[in-house]
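Case study 2.
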Amino acid sequence: MRMKAFLTILISFAVALSAVSVSAQTTAREQFIQKRQEAEQMIQQKRLELKSAIEAKRVETRDKIKAKREELKVQLQKIKDERKKQIVERVDARIDALNERMTGHYLKVLEQIEDVLGRVSSRADKAAVAGADVTAVREAIAKAQTAIASARATATAQAGKTYQITVTGENNLRADVGQARQALHADLVSVREAVKAAHMAVRDAAVSLAKIPKVNEAEVPANGQSATTTQSQ
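Prediction:
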């Protein structure tokens, strides 16, 4: 009887341990899913806010462009050659169009870079649940997030810039137009370098993730499964 009672207690204890293990694994999986959903929702919310901010800035910029074009017409009154006037006005319009197109392009690139970082972060979360040390990856991800935010702020500010052509004389039109072009070029180079820095930071995060042994085999444990890597077939 004592042996039977002992066996009953032992079996009950084993069942209790199994229940605790399954509960812990279920909680880990649920936490992972919830964390990823919250991260994705936050990214989408930030993008909606950014889209609204960019649109508001572009409306403001269009008003500034309209005002500066009126000012340019006044300045061009001192120029007698009508053909030269038209050329200057066309170049002015192209400068504005180029700035809008390129800032839009860089902001789109940043979204793509951010999506890549999101996938890196997701894999890091899975690796962490599987028991891997992801401290270095987390640090690299944080740096990449900062770089993306900085580049996005630079591109957003650039979207609100305008470039005034100051007409100093009929014989100086090439130089006058050239100054505005050079100013735009220099600013766009700054934006490009910021985006490049963000890209490199995300690359560093991906490289750091790849250094984790069997990281591509790590999976979030399903109910009743151990939190280990699953061997590829």
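The mean pLDDT is 82.
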